[in-house]
Amino acid sequence: KIKPKLKNIPSSTSIDTASVVKDLHQIASLAKSFSDQRLKWGDDAHLADLLDQQGVNLWNASGLFRQDSDSRLIVAALRLAGFRLMEAGLESEPSIQALLHMLQVASKTGSALSELGNSEAAASVLTCAAKFEEALRNHSDPDRAHEHSKARVTTLYFSSRMEAAWREKNEGLAMFMADKITGLDPGRNRRELLATKLLDIGKSILRACHQGGKLVAEGNRAPDALRWMQKAFQVIEPLECSHHSELAELKRAVLRSLARGYFLASSHDPENLTRAEVALEEIISTIDPSVDHTSSEYQQLRWMKLAVVKRRKAGDIELLHALESIIDNMTFSDSDLSDILLELRSLSPQYDVVTSTIKRCLWRALDTSASISCIEKLLISLLFHCSKGDDHRKAMKNLEESFQEVVKSDIELSKAAASACLTLIWQYGDRHYHASRWLEAADWFICGTNAVFSGLGPSCTSKCLRKAALCYIQQKEYARAASAVKRCPVNGATTRYVVFLIAVHQGLYSIRLHALLRQMVEAADFDRKMLLLACRLAHDSDMKSLLLSVLMALSDTLNFRNDVENLAEAMVLIRCIIRLTLKLLGQPGANIPPLVKTLLNYFKNAKTLVEAVACENVALVIRDLSWLWRTAYNCAIDGCSNWDNHGEEVSSAFDISRQLLELYIAKTLTEVEPSTYVYIANASFAATSGRGQYRCSDICCPEILRNLSAEIKSCTGRIASLLDKVPLADRAHLQSFLHFLRVFHVESASHLGEWQTILETIEEATRDEHQPLVTCEAIGDVLWENKNCPINGMMQLLYAALEVILHACLAHSQLSLDKFSRWLRSICSILLAKGSGADRSKAIQYFDQANAVLEEYGDLAENGNPLYPADERLWLLSTAYNTGVECLHASLVDEARRWFECATVFCRFVPNGKTRAEKISETYTDLLARYTRG
What we know:
Elements: H1 17-36, H2 38-41, H3 45-62, H4 72-88, H5 96-115, H6 119-138, H7 147-167, H8 171-181, H9 188-209, E1 210-211, E2 214-215, H10 222-236, H11 245-264, H12 271-285, H13 296-311, H14 316-328, H15 334-346, H16 351-367, H17 372-386, H18 392-408, H19 415-434, H20 438-447, H21 458-474, H22 478-486, H23 493-506, H24 510-522, H25 528-540, H26 544-558, H27 567-585, H28 592-611, H29 622-642, H30 647-667, H31 675-695, H32 702-722, H33 728-752, H34 755-767, H35 773-785, H36 797-811, H37 817-834, H38 837-857, E3 861-862, E4 865-866, H39 870-889, H40 893-906, H41 913-933
Antiparallel strand pairs: 1-2, 3-4
Helix pairs in contact: 1-4, 3-4, 4-5, 5-6, 5-7, 6-7, 7-8, 7-9, 9-10, 9-11, 10-11, 11-12, 11-13, 12-13, 13-14, 14-16, 16-17, 16-18, 17-18, 17-19, 18-20, 19-20, 20-21, 21-22, 21-23, 22-23, 23-24, 23-25, 24-26, 25-26, 26-27, 27-28, 28-30, 29-30, 30-31, 31-32, 31-33, 32-33, 33-34, 33-35, ...
C-alpha cells in the first residue's frame, strides 16, 4: 500500500503527504506493537530479517526527499516507520554494530520528530535510544575497536536528547546532556555540528533577553547563554582551524557570541567585560590580513570592542585606540559616518577623545579622498564640539589646524556647508559676546576668516572681521580692533562705521571723526541706521561736537526724500541740531565761526522746509516754526555780545529770525498779537544797522555799498509799513528806527556820491513831523565830514541839512544852545558865502532867530559857563558887523543898516557890550556919512 505512493520520490509534489504520513504512522504503530509483543511470538529470524529490510528501505527512502518544509513530515514519518521496523527486526541480543546503528537511527529519528514539534513521539523514540545507549555502554569492547564509533554515536544521541529537551523548555535536562557531550570526542565533523547547535541555543537565549537593543524581562539570563556558548567554544576549541575556513568562521562566530554574551552579562559580573575584550582580541587576531578589513563583519567586531571599552569605563587612551581602529578601517560611507558621529555624541563629556577622533576622521577622509559632503559633516561636527570645550585656546588651535588641512587638500566647500559653518561660528561668537567674554568671541569671529570659507566671497570675511573688531572695542583693545578692520576686503559703509567707532573710542581729533563720518555716508551701501547708532554713541560719550556732525549727516539724508511723512522727523532733527549748536557756542573756547555758520544754515533749512509744506500740513510745523523764530531772534541778540568780529553773521541771524517770523504770521491760522510785529521791526533794523556799521567802513567796495543802500531802503519801507500794526506805545520805537535808517542811508549815499538820493532823504526828513533833532544832526555830521559834499550849485546838500536841523530845533523845542549855536553858525556861513542878496536876507533872519534865543536863554549858565557859548556870541557880533560893512561898501545901505543894528543888539550878550555898541554906532555913523558924502 505504501510502496506505490513512494515510487515517484523525486517529484514529491505528486505525493499525497497526509495520506502517506498517516499510513507510515500506522506502520510505525504496528511495528511498535509487534516489538512489544515479541516475547509472545518468539524469535523468527526470517521475519526479523524481513522487518529489518523493510525498515532499512523506508529509512533510505527518507534520504531521497528534498529537505523542505513540505517534505519534512514525510521524512520524519519514514524515519519513524523505518526505525520501528528495524527495532522490530532487532535480535534479542544485538551486536555492538547493531547497537551503534540503532542508536544512531533512533537519535536521528527523535531529532526529526522533535524539530516538527511531535514531542510525544520524539520522547518515545529517544527513550528507546536511551536503552540502546545503555546497552552500548555496557557492551564489552576489550579491544576498544569501536571506541571512536561509540563516542560519535553517543554524542549524536546526547545531542538529540539535548535539542529535544531544549525545545520542550526542559533546560535542566538539556544542560545535563550538554555536560555529557563535552566529555566525549566525536570527531571533527561531529564537533563542528555540535558546536553549532550549542551556539544556536546560547544565541537564542541572548536574543530573548536583549531585543531591540534593550534588556527585556529575561535580561538576567545572559549568564545562562554564556554557559551554552562556553560549551560551544569548549567543543570547537581543540580543533585546528587554520586550514579549514568554515571551521575558522564557526570559531569566530562562537567568539563573537561569547563577547556579546560577556558584554550583556557584565552587569552581573564586571569581570565579564575583560573576558569580552579578550574574546574580541582573539577574533581580530585570527583575521586573515589578505581579507578586506573594512567589511561590515570586521567593523562590527571593532564596534563591539568600543562598546566593551566604554562599558568598563576605560581611560581616554584605550577609548581613543578603539575609535581609531574603527576610523582607520572605515569606508566613509554616509552610514559609517553617521554611526561614528552618533557614537561621539554619547562621548561628548570626554572632550579630548571626541576632538581627537573627529580630527582623525577628517585626516583619514582627506587622505582617502572621501566625498566633500563627508568632509563638510566632519567640519560642522568639529565646530559644534569645539564650542563646548573649556579650553578655548585648544579649541581654536584644533579648528585652525583642521581648516588648514582642508585648504592644503584643495577642497572647496559647498556654499551651503560653508554658510552653515559660518552660521555656527557667528552663533558661538555671539554667545561669548553676550556673556562679556570679548576676546573669546573675537577669536571665534577671526576663525570665520579662514581661507576654507573663501568660496562665500569677501563680504563674509569682512563681516567676521567687523564682528571681531567690535569685540576688541568692548575689551578696550582698540589697536587690535583697528588692525582687524583694516583687513576687511570690502570697504563699505558698515566697515567704515566700525572704523568710525574705533576712532571715537581712541579719542581721535574731531576733524578725523568728521571725515570718517562723511566717508561712511558717502558709501554705496550706506544705511541710516548706522547714523542712528553713531548718534547714540556720541550722546553716550557726551561728544557734543561729534553728535552735531552725526545729526547734520542724518538731516542730510532726509534731503533726498520727498515724502511728507518725514516732515516731523526733519523738524525734530533741525531743532536738535540748533539746540546742540547753541550749547557748543556757549562753551568756553568754542570755535565760533563754523558753529555760527552751521546755526544759520539750519535756520535757513528750516525756513525752506516750512515754505515747501502744503497748506493741509501746516499744523504739523506751526509750533516748530514759532520755536524757530524765537530761537533765532534770541540767538542773534546773544551774538551781539558774544560773536566777536562776526557782525555779518549777527545780521544774518536777525534776518532769518525776521523771515521765520513773517513766515509764521503768514502760515498761522489765528491772528497774532500786535506786539509780534515789533519783533519784525527790531530784527529788520538790527540786521540792517549791523551791516551798515560793517560795510560803510569799506569805502572801496561800491557794489557792497549799493547793496547796503538798497537794503536800508527796503528796511525803511518794511518798518514804515508796520507802524499801523504795532501798539501805540511802540510806534515811537519804530519811528526812531526810521530816523536812524535815514542817517544810514545818507551815510551810504555820501560814500557813493549819490547826492540826489541824499537830498531826497533830507526832504523826506523835513516832511516827517516826528523827526528828532539828533537825526538831523547826524545827517549834518555825515555831510560835514565828507569833503566831496557839494556846497554851491544845485546840490546844496549841506545847507538843506542844516536848515532841517534848525527847523527841528525850533519846531520841536529840542534846543541844545551849544548845538544850536554851532549849526546856526554853519548855515549862516554857507548863506553868506553864497553872497547873493536873497541868501543874506535868509542869513539875517537866522541872526534874528539867534537874537531871540539869546533873549530867552542868554543868561543861562552851567558851572559858571554860559550855555550859549561866548565865542559863538562874539562870532554873531563880528559877522553881523563885517557883513554890514560889506553891504555898506556895496552901497546896500538898507542891508548895511540892518546888519549894524543886528550887531548892536548882540552887544548886549557879550562882555563890554555897551562899549562895543557905542563903537559900532560911531563906526556905522562915520561910515554912513563918508559913503553919503562920497
